[in-house]
Amino acid sequence: MSRKIIAKASLRGILKAATPLSVGGTGAGEHVDIELATDGTGQCYIPGTSLAGAIRSWLERQGCTEHFFGKADGEASRVYVYDSAIPYAIKERRHGISLNDNTGTVFGREGFFYTRAILPRGTSVPFNIELDVSNENDGGILALIVEALEAGEIRFGRCRTRGMGKMYLADTAINYYDFVNDGTALDSWLENKPASINTLENFNRPYLNRKKVFHIKISWQPESNLMVKSGLDGIAAKIMPLVSGIDEGGRIIAPVIPGTSFKGLFRSHARKIFNTLMIEDKINIIDDIFGDEHRAGRLMIDDVYCVTKQSLLLENWIEEDSDTLDIATSENQHVAIDRFTGGASPGALYNARPVKNSCAWEPIYITLNAFPEISVEMLKGD
Looking at the DSSP assignment, which residues form a beta bridge with residue 33? Predict the structure, then answer.
């Protein structure tokens, strides 16, 4: 079905991952339960449907009623979002565990342990969309999308509330081909030449019924050594801290505390507070904030990385070079005690490499969406 088009707009740039990215493919991989999406050439990529879905969801949450991405009665989308291949992508593995809220253990959780493949922080993803402009409001909506992407407000992929998928748009290039007022615009678009209008500043942004979003920054420093265990045992030390890449090439790494660890900790503490205050319907309130098996929560906590005085090279860390390990960790010896005999358990001696308490850590960044159905009185209790 034909439709009126008064202009074409194209947006190109690079999405840079500020936290790890998980865009799952079909089936499990050789070493993971949730593999990354790959195209026909075997390259990791983000499908255009995943990018478009995240942008559409953000627009709907802001109260945008324009049918930018089409609608169910048969109107096609005016936005073309291209697949984004990631050549030479560095892949990591991240382990997860599901706990029972009532017991604090994995008891009663079938398939409680899982492993997913992720793209580390610093990964660069090409971003390319085009828009059929049918009215003047379209330019303003596209400008809103650009501003949200550049501010990192739109998250992509899975586990968006658990520390992943935060990306910033950089190197933005915009071309707006005005077919009505520019006689050369059609030829320029057909020949893929730059447009006479390369900004969206002059377009009026539509009024949006924005929901309140609270951004919380917590500066902190551990008082003792800290350990979030890696899924793999070491050679020099049996228990090694979890590390993750922090640059585009994946060669520079840092110890990391996943957003899932903080979210689980806060959820458990919130449950204790609600139990103490004897707030009714506490389970529904906590599930609404933190999410459950059927829905995502309203609370998002980013991964938090250690800041070391010297860079940690991946190859040296894998080889367990002592000088590299000593930059961020200390070696601790432990003995496991048998609770019945009071003596050492078989194979009781083991060592660990926790992160030193002298190492600095990035702030904890929390995003909390508004709670229209929860009042202050409900949180205070009777």
Answer: none
The strand pairing partners of 355, in sequence order, are 226, 329
**In angstroms, how far apart are the furthest CA atoms of the chain?**
90
Task: Give the HSE-up count for residue 291: Cα atoms under 13 Å, Cβ half-sphere.
Answer: 18
Number of neighbouring beta carbons within 10 Å of residue 272:
9
In whole angstroms, what is the distance from residue 164 CA to residue 123 CA? Answer: 12
At residue 199, does pLDDT exceed 70? Answer: yes
Q: What are phi and psi of 318, to 5 degrees?
A: -60, -40
DSSP H stretches of helix in 158-258 = 185-190
Comparing CA positions, the residue from 210, 229, 216 lying closest to residue 301 is 216
The two tokens of residue 258 are: 């996943």
What is the Cα–Cα distance from 142 to 43, expressed in whole angstroms?
29
Apex 117 CA angle, 159 and 154, nearest 5? 35
Amino acid at the residue 348: A
Q: Provide the terminal-to-terminal Cα distance of the chain, rounded to the nearest Å.
A: 59
Dump pLDDT digits (tens) for 6-52: 888 889 999 999 998 888 766 665 566 677 888 888 888 888 989 99
- Round to whole Å and give the CA distance between 115 and 96: 6
Amino acid at 266: F
Q: What is the helix (H) or strand (E) element at residue 274, kind and residue range? A: helix 259-277
Give residue-wise pLDDT tens across range 71-107: 766 677 888 999 988 888 788 888 766 655 555 555 4
Say if residue 190 is exposed, middle or buried (CB neighbours under 10 Å; 0-12, 13-18, 19+): exposed
Would you tell me how many other CB atoms lie within 10 Å of the CB of residue 93?
14
- Categorise residue 281: left if φ over 0, alpha if ψ from -120 to 50, beta otherwise: left
Phi/psi of residue 173, nearest 5 degrees: -130, 125
Place of tokens 């090409």: 126
Nearest to 113 by CA among 33, 13, 190: 33
* Contact of 238 with 227, CB cutoff 8 Å: no
| Rounded Cα–Cα distance for residues 87 and 83 (Å) | 13
> How far is residue 140's CA from residue 127's CA, in Å, rounded to a whole number?
19
Residue 350 burial by Cβ neighbours in a 10 Å radius (0-12, 13-18, 19+): middle
